[in-house]
Amino acid sequence: MHILLVASAFNSLTQRVHAELRDRGHLVTVELALPDGSLADAVRRHAPQLVLAPMLRTAIPREVWETYPCFVVHPGPVGDRGPSSLDWAIQEGAERWGVTVLQAVEEMDAGDVWASVACPLPPVPKSDLYRNEIADAALAAVLLAVERFASGTHTPVRQDTSRARPYLDQSVRRIDWHADSTETVVRKLRAADSQPGVLDTLLGEEWYLHGGHPEDVLRGAPGELLATCVGAICRATTDGAVWIPELRRRRRPGQPSTFRRPAVSALGDLLPPVPRLPALPEPGWRTWTDIRYREEGSVGFLSFSFPGGAMSTAQCRRLLDAYREACTRPTSVLVLGGQRDFFCNGIHLGVIEAAEDPAAESWANINAIDDLVEAVLRTTDRLVVSALAGNAAAGGVMLALAADEVWCRGGCVLNPHYRLMGLTGSEYWTYTLPRRVGAAAADRLLREALPTSAAGACGLGLVDRVVDCRPQDFQAEVGRMAARLVSLPGTRTRIAAKKAELDRQESVEPLSAFRERELAEMHRVFHDPAAPYHELRRAFVHKEKATCTPPHLARATGGRTTAEPFRFGSAATGRTTP
User: Fold this and answer.
1) Residue 37 has pLDDT above 80, yes or no
2) Cα–Cα distance between 278 and 325 in angstroms, integer?
3) Do 19 and 453 meet the contact criterion of CB atoms below 8 Å apart?
4) Does pLDDT of 285 surpass 90?
5) Contact, 94 vs 86, CB < 8 A?
6) pLDDT digits (tens, 9 = 90+) for 408-420
7) Cβ–Cβ < 8 Å for 58, 8
8) What is 291-536's CATH number, 3.20.20.80, 1.20.120.530, 3.90.960.10, 3.90.226.10?
9) Is residue 275 exposed (0-12), middle (13-18) or buried (19+ Cβ within 10 Å)?
10) Burial 18-50 (b: 16+ CB within 10 A, else e)
11) Region (Disordered): which ranges (predicted)?
12) Is the pTM of this model over 0.85?
């Protein structure tokens, strides 16, 4: 079927739907719903058999939904309506939620239901839920709705449209530090997470707070700043404290847009003298941090979780220190990856944009992540497994490929390319990517710059094993798989062969040669003020609206090479459409 995805942005859910529909043989195109564009003209130009909106902030025009079957993905159960559905659910502490695929009509979220799938809401941030539990339910609902639509025999169900809730504005999100409990504060922070943040007054200025983690040990007067750790600040509540990783200064009238930054660097000289907690806590330390290490028998687990999945120079260096320390332990398998959500998205464009010299910070950041990748590639005394609980992109994919095996949760989306940011890439990709998928496939992945599903990545050879499980079960599944890997008879043989293979590679073409060639091109781009990278980076960090749909998304991708005309009957659309 030819399916047109209409979206406000090509976000993580839209990417997953795009990749998974292509996997199933559908011909998929994308059109961004832009303020200055005519969506009706764009849809007519594509002439799809079905219009699907995975993430749309505006209404589909009447002339579109009256002419074409249009399905909207709503992140709420049947009957729930409004633009802040998931935010309300998290802030109110809901434990179960759902996703509904409904037909577009005049009234937002009020159309007939084609599919609805329930899901749990564990106590994690909104963006994490959106990329995991919500995305899993959304994909299941989309596939079910498409199947029902294709059958031509399904009749959608009317819904009760009386439960409409308003936009969750800052008056409801605001934290009362002298009255709200830690649980309440964390729920408010998680419900606002990456967007829009919680507006607050801190040290005499207005900031949006982004992200929140409960603190188990530290205590103080409500609202007081207690400590810092790995760039985050700890602030006391009435009965405990919370960690806030990122801040965004409130934009003043006439001033340029602001963006999220690590809290400590955002505050700068405003930050009073408070204790700085160690970046790498001892085992059993209960205070929040972004890197942890633990062992189970002969398996070491080095987990990390950075906001947005990007890694700054400092974060790369800290993770490298932790990796080197983990390699001193008497284990035969080392698992590298987070417990859920992002694996890694490469260098930290936000920290780079905020730097006094973005070119110099870009150079420092790419060298720091290259150092980490090189350490993994040169590990010969144990097997290293990259465990992708969530999405990965650009240099983050290449970091994963440096390991001996790549395990990926079934809901992951991989973007193994750089060109959309105007970069040629580093992280030893010219060595690891062709080694994994072959030169032709590597060239195609980088040139097409399209998202790849976990199953698609496995078929290409990017991923060795796809773990089909719920997000909350991934850590335990990986633990069982790693323990089994230790017990396999061939594991010792594989470890013994690693040094010989590395020596052979060094004699043919040393790893340093790949790095030098990649970095020479990256250095040229970073230090060329006219290079597109700088404008693309600024637009990405400041969340500037796209002016048109990128050509690589507007082109039809996927589908079968030969297909008979597809027809659906009156039960689905009220008419017959070729």
Assistant:
1) no
2) 15
3) yes
4) no
5) no
6) 999 999 999 999 9
7) yes
8) 3.90.226.10
9) exposed
10) bbbbbeeebbbbbbbbbeeeebeebbeebebbb
11) 550-578
12) yes
- The rounded distance, in Å, linking the Cα atoms of 443 and 221 is 57
Mean pLDDT in residue range 44-58: 96
Give CA–CA dist 577/234, Å, rounded.
59
Question: 461: burial class by Cβ within 10 Å (0-12, 13-18, 19+)?
Answer: middle
Question: In the 8-state DSSP scheme, what is residue 124?
Answer: S
* Annotated domain spans of the chain: 2-167+557-573, 172-270, 291-536
Q: Are 300 and 352 in contact (CB under 8 A)?
A: no
Strand arrangement of the beta sheet that strand 225-229 belongs to: 213-215, 241-244, 232-236, 225-229
Secondary structure of residue 420 in the 3-state scheme: helix
Inter-residue contact 361 to 327 (CB < 8 Å): no
Kind of pairing between the strands at 452-453 and 413-415: antiparallel
Flag whether pLDDT at 64 surpasses 70. Answer: yes
Q: For 559-569, what is each residue's pLDDT tens digit?
A: 753 333 333 33
Instruction: Give the 3-state secondary structure of residue 31.
Output: strand
Say which CATH topology domain 2-167+557-573 has: Rossmann fold (3.40.50)
Q: CA gyration radius for the chain? A: 24
- Kindly provide the residue ranges of all beta strands, DSSP E only, lying in 380-469, ordered along the sequence: 383-388, 392-393, 405-409, 413-415, 452-453, 465-467
Contact of 408 with 378, CB cutoff 8 Å: no
Percent of the chain predicted with pLDDT > 90? 88
- DSSP three-state, residue 253: coil
d(CA 254, CA 491): 62
Label residue 178 exposed, middle or buried (CB < 10 Å: 0-12, 13-18, 19+): exposed
Helix, coil or strand: residue 191: helix
Domain 172-270: CATH class, spelled out: alpha beta
Contacts of 442 (CB under 8 A, 6+ apart): 433, 434, 436
